[in-house]
Design the sequence.
């Protein structure tokens, strides 16, 4: 095995890549099934339960509220139980609550269960992302986080093909069958996660993968007090804008495909799966861009692509504009979380990465909770989501400006 500055750099054999793969599979369930499946399930759930745009938004809000609660408590639990136990336990929580959703059609009970699913989702995603700072040095941290965030893309592909073809099963309606299938699948992934994930390279007697930055030891010591908090607020605001805007898109774009663009459920499912296919590579590509050109460059390009995607469906009723929007969104879908996970490790060091990412994710969670609710309210007033998509585009442009004001890690004082 080749060594570089005391650190292993063997791509094929180093356990860090197995950890990244395992975490990607976990996030496949945590986001791909636990959250993003909701966007394509919502039309059939709304028809079956007679939900308005506002009620559908509030059901999604329950999940995101649970995610926010999880982000608040997971850092303290992580210190006691470790990533392996927290991720596994969270997957089992998701499995139980999704299976329970399959046997109820009461709106308020569904909201409660989906809130608990959101708690489980947060308990999967935050540890799976932050552990990359333990297993990877800055030279490969962005790409590693990108691999983890490829998981949701596979979940979207799966739901895009499965959900339109779901059939009633016994007394269960088609959407209830879907939640039952997803719950059973998540149980299997929970067992897989426990068998493969390890909390730290020391558990396997290896070093982190990659080459550490020469300035990493000093940059962490510089970030204390006022500068520390200012940086956290800055990163959190950028992440919060992403949370609000992307969640509006993934929650309602399938509804818009069918209601505004007149697509069938099958065709909308294919287009949703196409977005999922593109998104598989988004985190890896943008993670590499941020490793190569810096986190700030990666974020600027990410938000520029996302802004264009939002504005296309906000200002045009053309099917071509929709196709272009979905394509662009897929290209940059998971870019921001990947870069944020890498950036917190760069700025605050591996030991504090989970706590710093958690603080940023609090603002992110607030954004993704509020965004769909506001979008649902605006849709109730206007009859569609064009105003919401347009506002999301403008917010993404503002995020570009905020990113340009962000100091690179080596210049933070």
Sequence:
């Amino acid at each position: 095995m080749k060594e570089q500055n005391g650190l292993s750099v063997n791509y094929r054999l180093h356990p860090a890549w197995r950890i990244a793969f395992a975490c990607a599979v976990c996030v496949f369930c945590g986001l791909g099934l636990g959250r993003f499946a909701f966007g394509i399930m919502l039309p059939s759930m709304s028809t079956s339960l007679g939900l308005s745009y506002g009620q559908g938004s509030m059901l999604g809000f329950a999940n995101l509220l649970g995610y926010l609660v999880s982000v608040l408590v997971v850092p303290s639990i992580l210190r006691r139980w470790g990533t392996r136990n927290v991720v596994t336990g969270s997957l089992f929580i998701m499995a139980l609550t999704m299976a329970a959703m399959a046997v109820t059609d009461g709106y308020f009970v569904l909201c409660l269960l989906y809130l608990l699913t959101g708690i489980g989702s947060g308990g999967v995603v935050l540890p799976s992302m932050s552990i990359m700072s333990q297993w990877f040095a800055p030279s490969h941290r962005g790409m590693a986080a990108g691999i983890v965030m490829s998981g949701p893309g596979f979940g979207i592909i799966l739901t895009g093909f499965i959900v339109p073809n779901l059939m009633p099963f016994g007394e269960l309606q088609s959407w209830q069958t879907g939640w039952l299938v997803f719950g059973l699948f998540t149980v299997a992934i929970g067992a897989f996660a426990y068998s493969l994930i390890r909390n730290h390279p020391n558990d396997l007697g290896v070093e982190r993968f990659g080459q550490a930055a020469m300035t990493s030891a000093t940059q962490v010591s510089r970030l204390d007090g006022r500068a520390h908090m200012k940086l956290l607020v800055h990163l959190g605001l950028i992440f919060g804008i992403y949370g609000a805007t992307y969640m509006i898109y993934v929650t309602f774009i399938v509804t818009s495909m069918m209601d505004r663009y007149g697509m069938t459920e099958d065709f909308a499912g294919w287009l949703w799966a196409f977005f999922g296919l593109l998104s598989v590579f988004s985190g890896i590509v943008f993670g590499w861009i941020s490793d190569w050109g810096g986190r700030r460059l990666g974020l600027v390009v990410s938000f520029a692509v996302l802004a264009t995607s939002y504005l296309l469906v906000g200002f045009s009723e053309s099917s071509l504009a929709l196709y272009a929007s979905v394509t662009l969104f897929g290209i940059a879908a998971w870019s921001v979380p990947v870069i944020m996970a890498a950036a917190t490790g760069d700025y605050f060091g591996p030991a504090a990465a989970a706590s710093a990412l958690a603080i940023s994710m609090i603002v992110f969670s607030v954004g993704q909770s509020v965004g769909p609710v506001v979008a649902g309210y605006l849709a109730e007033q206007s009859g569609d989501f064009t105003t919401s998509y347009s506002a999301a585009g403008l917010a993404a442009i503002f995020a570009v400006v905020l990113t340009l004001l962000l100091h690179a890690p080596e210049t933070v004082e």
Remarks:
- The first strand starts at residue 3 and ends at 4.
- The radius of gyration is 20 Å.
